[in-house]
Amino acid sequence: MEFRQIGAAERTTTMFPLVAYAFKPSPWAPEDEAAYAERMRFYETTVSLIAEEDGQTLAGVAALRMRQNVRGVVHDMAGVASVATHPAARRRGLVRELLPRLLRQMRAEGCAVSALYPFRPSFYARFGFVGIPAHRTAVFAPQGLSHLVRADLPGEVERLPLSEGWAAYDSAIQRRLAGRHGFSVFDEVRAAEFRELKSWVAVARAGGEVVGAVRYRIDAHGGELVAQDLHCSGPLGRALLLQFFARHVDQVARVSVRHDPADVPELWGTDLEVTSKTRVDNPTHNAPMVRVLDVAALSGMPAGPGEVTVEIVDDELIGGVWHLASDGGTLTVTKGTKGTKSTSPSVRLTAAGFSALVYGVLDPVEVFTRGLGELTEVDTLAAMFPREMPYLFADF
Ligand SMILES: CC(C)(COP(=O)(O)OP(=O)(O)OC[C@H]1O[C@@H](n2cnc3c(N)ncnc32)[C@H](O)[C@@H]1OP(=O)(O)O)[C@@H](O)C(=O)NCCC(=O)NCCS
User: Fold this and answer.
1) Which of 114, 249, 303, 387 has most Cβ atoms within 10 angstroms of its Cβ?
2) Would residue 319 count as lying in a domain?
């Protein structure tokens, strides 16, 4: 078995048959392969690894170059995708070999964190990933926002084809990246494909600045306005975009819009009848998962007061003893116990347990009840890594 990295052009002959078989209706038509080849220019910066035997590609994994905000600090992130093994070669340990290779390489290239959408979370839990919240989708009739139809708000909304509104849309996303824990974006090469999507974008501006943007399409007259994630820098941006939706009364029956789990749609209006929900099931609708690839790179992250020596177990990337201290609200990370008061770690965590604390999705007692760490240093860890729910935005 040979494991090697391939370039974007080679993905069509090697990875396409695996991912098309795994994720698309099949058999596929020759034009599907041609369409895939055409898209490969958007994968020029993607790191793709394959396993080959006798010239046949049996498995592949890839990492998209992304960036993610983790508690206010933006890191390079490996967005894991295209994970597939030929059905005849499954359960032979090929992804077990490929995925750690990929994560090692991405860490060496500067990625401090990684994220993915799993087909089954327990599979990626073996590789140190832990779940974070899924996005929510709110569904309501535009009549529910009638209070906004004539409201005189200090700003305006422009509707454009996405290709024309791309710069404004991208600026709204980059602003969210800077300000929202968990938010992630693709690099320019990968993101360029989304610019070509057949989609509208509504851009809200106030005082000459972009304060919100949302991608959407309308499926039918009297049907649904289907909006993607609502990207707002604050309540005015949200109100402007909701007002824009409200003005589709008698044109569409419903508006559906994806939103940050921290948003509370029932507070968007009086008498607004709204359903906001998330759906999680295998293999198609799973909440994202994340993990830390580089503990030392977390130095400088905002953290509550405290000091603790942890041992991360069973993980080749971040395993070992780490001294974590926060003074004045900033985390300092030191490898080992050298130079610290403590001589041995006082809590043992798995990579997933540590990642859960860093991302703020589980508190230390939950880390223990989930089997991801010991029940010690609970108060210190809770103070240093307070819960703070991330919102991963990624259109993949
Ligand atoms: C999921 C998939 C990629 C696994 O690839 P693989 O090469 O068979 O995986 P491996 O043999 O390396 O297995 C790695 C580990 O996961 C376990 N595993 C494999 N498939 C699993 C599954 N469906 N559910 C839970 N665990 C699984 C293996 O037992 C092994 O455990 P171990 O390391 O403790 O021994 C492959 O089955 C596949 O291509 N499925 C269809 C496409 C897909 O779902 N891809 C993932 C998209 S997120």
Assistant:
1) 114
2) yes
| Residue from 193, 194, 173 nearest 68 by CA | 173
pLDDT in tens, 88-126: 999 999 999 999 999 999 999 999 999 999 999 999 999
Indicate if the pLDDT at residue 395 is higher than 90. no
CATH number of the domain within which 144 lies: 3.40.630.30
Q: Per-residue pLDDT tens for 133-158? A: 999 999 999 999 999 999 999 999 99
Which structural domain, as residue segments, surrounds residue 314? 295-384
For Cα atoms 51, 53, 54, give the angle at the middle one, nearest 5 degrees.
145
Q: Is residue 33 part of a domain?
A: yes
| Position 326 pLDDT exceeds 60 | yes
Q: Are strands 347-350 and 306-313 parallel, antiparallel or unpaired?
A: parallel
Q: Is 35 exposed, middle or buried (0-12, 13-18, 19+ CB in 10 A)?
A: exposed
- Could you read off the pLDDT of 38-80 as tens digits, one per residue? 999 999 999 999 999 999 999 999 999 999 999 999 999 999 9
- Name which residue sits closest to atom 18 of ligand 1, judged by CA: 123
In contact, 16 and 36? CB cutoff 8 Å:
yes
Pocket residues for ligand 1 (CB within 6 Å)? Answer: 22, 59, 83-85, 90-96, 118-120, 122-123, 126, 283
Q: Is residue 204 part of a domain?
A: yes
